[in-house]
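Archive transcription. Copying these from loose printouts into the bound notebook so they stop getting lost. Printout 1 of 2:
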Amino acid sequence: MKAVLALADGTVFEGTAFAPGEAVGEIVFNTAMTGYQEILTDPSYFGQLVVMTYPEIGNVGVNPEDVESTRPFVQGFIVKEYWQRPSNWRARGSLADYLRAHGIPGMEGIDTRALVRHIRERGAQQAVLSTIDLDPKSLVRKAQEAPGLVGRDLVREVTCREAYDWNEGPWNPESGYRRHDPRASRFFVVAYDFGIKRNILCNLVAAGCRVRVVPAWTPAATTLAMNPDGIFLSNGPGDPDAVPYAREIVRQLIGAKPIFGICLGHQILGLALGGGTYKLKFGHHGANHPVKDLTTGKVEVTAQNHGFAVDVDSLPGIARLTHVNLNDHTVEGIEHAQLPIFSVQYHPEASPGPHDAAYLFRRFAALMEAHR
């Protein structure tokens, strides 16, 4: 089955579909070599078409344990070469069947190197992937008319509708995911769900936390009435400026409890502190981005997925830079000058990616211990 990918700037790629359908979104590329199922189910990718730079995708199939949320959130998936028959002892199905079941189009057989170079040069932009409408001019027009991510509140589309408790720890080969007795937890954390990943919650549990996950619009007064030891601000999709209610809620929480933010939570925290954010040309998406921790001098390889960044110069005297991206020197972490508050732009929970930054969950636990 033929598939066509059309970008808003008029560039068109033709290939073959391994999952049918039509989808529109911002086209971005991910440089991870493994972990496509975790990427597909990361809510931060809502509103985006994802191109994998690694050439062979589908080899390990899919399984129910490697999901990061309730369903895949990417709009469409583009690869160089798709493998229909998985070869992995954990596989419970094929990637194509998984995408078809969720109505997500998948495309293979294009020069993904050329596409990635184009995105790097021209920047991320709206695009349409289709097996239904194969007219390039029609698809380019659809891409040009599609709304971008700037100014769109995508958090409302991915956050939980009701609060829930989480007590599952990280996965291991022997026993899979193990439940922990919440009565044995040392800390109680309220986690704001802006598009939270499962492995973030697992790492909080591993750090000794009992976790209550709440919707993105939960009032600050409701959270403080639970009397948590700390507050966590999760990752999520889209423009941080498009969720002013979250910024106001976090502003009211500042100074009340220790706060730890990741990705979109980091950006919302920056806005709540009075700073600004801006859109990156093509964003950071992958599992191999070098980041330097300025508090220790160590360099860690990190997993990343964001299209916006915090302008630390907009927070003079309020917050200081703690982590910097060694590829483009953008902000990767900040901490409050006086209060027990810190955040990072990247994903210390990985899935997929290296575990170099897992210490940040222990740092959060130490912060809560010190401010009880």
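Printout 2 of 2:
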Amino acid sequence: RHLRRVPSVGDAEADLIAMARAFTRFGLRNPTHYWLLTTARGADAVPPRSAEEARAVMEAPLRKLEAEGRLALDDFEATQQALWALLHGVISLRSSRQDYAWVPDMAERSIDAMIRGLVEPARGERRRAMAR
């Protein structure tokens, strides 16, 4: 529900950044719910529907970037897993290490840096500065 509320601006890169930030905010504000959605289950277990829906919503701008030829990696699954690992790491560390003096905008900086590494600028465009 939180991801579906993220307004699309029509640019897949900007949409992906907005969704990644919304996903991270949700995980940080709802650590128990996030843990329940992402905890390991048995090999035959079906992921919760809401987790699968979130994955599909976040996959859409990545698929658009892939169609535009803008993914830096030539492997969609590797790109998706790298992004997931970063988001999960940010959420997990911030949730489990509340005693650490995290930089206030660490999540945003991490997402911006990851997207810059995963997404090529559109043809004819220079890399724009990421908005905080």
